[in-house]
């Protein structure tokens, strides 16, 4: 039931949305004002509930991405919380909100206090999302048309250190017909923009965090089959520069191994990836000029 469950000719019976929320305290908007994270999280939860409200068969998954690990925030791996109706709110919406906030607190508390926050493990969170989508597809009712997509909400900077992992995840998502959408809260992210372009998703850099919920509902709530009928932000120019395997820096011109296609910024006689030894030839011989015959 792998790749054929999504029908591109019309709307699907069910839509599976996996949201990856970057909770790394190293993000600039969090370091400037930690309370902003609460507002962003409330916007993501409202967006998630809006997705569930569209169709009764819609499914949701939320993954929290930190600098030391990524973890499922919803659904809870264990027994679901026992929630009751509050002020007429739908029980499922209450369950989503309480489960995400409770598990996010546990994720933040589990971070090593002695370690300095590093980069967010977004590539690993994407791999977890693809595994979750694959499992939900296997468990789906036979004949059910299910569309799947991933939304990344992050304010972290672009990093080339995870370039290989990113590329593996992007092309796996493309093969599984999973769209990857990216909502950047701070800086332009060229690598994640490549993933959006490869999988057919949307990329948006939010100009203001105050209107985050409006941007989420306007741009990322519609399914893939509905987006062609709407006026949405264009893809723009995508930066397809590759990152070198030695220093993880984006390159315009570099050296490529002819065996494993690894990219390097400087020439090396031995490929550090596949250990192929290249023969270094001497300078090319200069052909003697032909003397013109005098007539």
Overview of the molecule:
This protein is of the alpha/beta class and 295 residues long. It is built from 8 helices and 10 strands. The chain has helices at 28-32, 36-54, 91-109, 122-139, 163-175, 190-199, 212-220, 224-227, and strands spanning 14-22, 59-65, 70-74, 146-154, 178-184, 203-205, 242-243, 250-251, 255-256, 263-264. The strands form 3 sheets. The chain has a 6-stranded mixed sheet with strand order 3-2-1-4-5-6, with helices on both faces. A two-stranded antiparallel sheet has the order 7-8. Helix 4 runs parallel beside helix 5 (163-175). It is elongated, with a radius of gyration of 24 Å. It starts with 13 loop residues before the first strand and ends in a 31-residue tail after the last strand. Residues 1-8 have low confidence and may be disordered.
Short description:
The chain is α/β, with parallel strands linked by helices and 295 residues long. The protein has helices at 28-32, 36-54, 91-109, 122-139, 163-175, 190-199, 212-220, 224-227; strands at 14-22, 59-65, 70-74, 146-154, 178-184, 203-205, 242-243, 250-251, 255-256, 263-264. The protein has 8 helices and 10 strands.
What is the residue-mean pLDDT, rounded to a whole number?
87
Radius of gyration, taken over Cα atoms and rounded to an integer in Å: 24 Å
What's the main sheet like? 6 strands, mixed
User: Ranges with pLDDT <50 over ≥5 residues?
Assistant: 1-8
- Proportion of strand residues: 15-25%
What order do the SSEs take from the amino end to the carboxyl end, as H and E?
Answer: EHHEEHHEHEHEHHEEEE
How does the helix and strand content classify structurally? alpha/beta
Gap between N and C termini: 81 Å
Q: What's the total number of strands?
A: 10
Q: Categorize the overall geometry.
A: elongated
Biggest sheet: strands side by side, in what order? 3-2-1-4-5-6
Helix content: 25-40%
Supply the number of helical segments. 8
GO biological process, one term: regulation of DNA-templated transcription
Protein name: General transcription factor IIH subunit 3
GO molecular function, one term: zinc ion binding
Main location: nucleus
